[in-house]
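Ticket #4471: structure export looks truncated?
Reporter: QA, pipeline team
Priority: medium

Steps to reproduce: submit the single chain below to the structure queue and open the exported record.
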Amino acid sequence: MTVRWGRCSNFKNCTDAKQRQAIPIPQGTPFICPECSGTLVDENDLAPKRISPAPRKQETTTPKVVLAASILLILVAGFAVWGGLHASKASAAKVQPKTILRLAGSNTIGDTLGPALAEAFLKDQGATDLRTLPGANPQEKIVQGILPGDNTPSAITIAAHGSATAFTSLAANSCDIGMASRKIKPDEASKLVALGDMSSAANEHILGLDGIAVIVNAANPANQLNKETIKRIFTGDITDWSKAGPQAGSSSGAIKIYARNDDSGTYDTFKSLVLAGKPLVSGAQRIEDSKTLSDAVAADPHGIGFIGLPYIQSAKPVAVSEKGTQSLLPTRLTVGTEDYLLSRRLYLYSSAASGNKFAHQFVEFALSKAGQDVVGDSGFVTQNVAQVAQAVAPQAPGEYKWLTKGANRLSLDFRFESGAAELDNKAQADLDRVVSLIADLKISPDRVMLFGFSDNNGSPSSNQAISLTRAQAVESQFIERGLHPAIVRGYGSGLSVAADDSEEGQAMNRRVEIWVKK
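Actual output as written to the record:
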């Protein structure tokens, strides 16, 4: 076998270089140091058997010799630096991850929940050496791990620049799954028709629930505000705490407004649910990151802002009400049943026809019990069903109060497509979750009760009829799954959770509650 002989010049980092070892390299293979991957200095005259050089006569050092020695030292140093750089590049190339999935969109989801889900998903796939790394900026992260049978890491990239970017990224094919803290708009869906019907259950997936919390400084005496007052504050009609009404307590001073940026789904939902078409006050401080906004409000005695449930942190949430409804704080129950006025759903959007198997598997995992546990652990409201004790409002119908006395309410409600008795996308998945809970806890069907409610748009008799029809629609779905509820009732508009003067409020009132007798 023909070999070439060389010496390594990476004296700083290589043992062979420090010991001045002669290194044999088989002909045809890269001429690099096997220890540090630095390029070797060729020694063509070097042979396996070395002959000691004859003693040299002592010579007088001349300027030419000094110059030659200096040049040699410069070359050796250059080789050492170049070799070190080459070794670093070679090392980086060995661990360069391959991207298997790209998520883009909501900062509310992508900041904490997205990375947590990505890591749990990779772990569920059997990956090892899991880690979350920073991306190009604070709104981007890379979650990676080594999947079974692979030598290189597989990566899931997350770009959380706002819900609007979920749909532009899907359109540009720069992501596989869009994250959104609001429902897709018709004009956005129209640009994604090549991916399918983005409002269908095949492409639109409810990841979890969140409540937009209206937050103030912990020392602010305001504990509750009605929706109209919140609207007037954020549109600039009320500029001092002393003008915010008795609900604001003894507060005074100029109000400082904090709001998310225009690409934010949180801001978009707040505009729809609260501002009702009026513009945000021009002096508001706009912030892209959820945690940063919460910290800013918590540090400002006169501040007020809005944020997703997990980002309240050291700020204080206020209870929210509107005419004819009870003030409610955003809690796991009030958000889970979507009774809290500023409740919202978190979404994943993907193409059912996607050729990326990891996109389908990720969505399936996110909606599973294990994935929903991650949603709950991240501070959002999981869709895993639980029994919760709840006090009934004094204005509730008499029979309803009697039937629910001593009973537990399940932590979700069934809601319907607008103007129809057809269950919406979330309700379709919730049917199986409820049946699983009933089976797991061995709850007898004769303890299960369904109560339907409507908005107040029709006559009392028609509202009662449609509320019963909706309760029966849920009943029939349960019967198909082997569960026969014992009591099914419709109470019309007898217990509104929102005002009926908006489409959103009407949708909240059209619901079916599930209760379980003890």
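Status: closed, not a bug. The export was complete when the record was re-opened. Leaving a note from the reviewer for reference: The chain has four domains: 3-53+61-94, 98-206, 209-336, 385-516.
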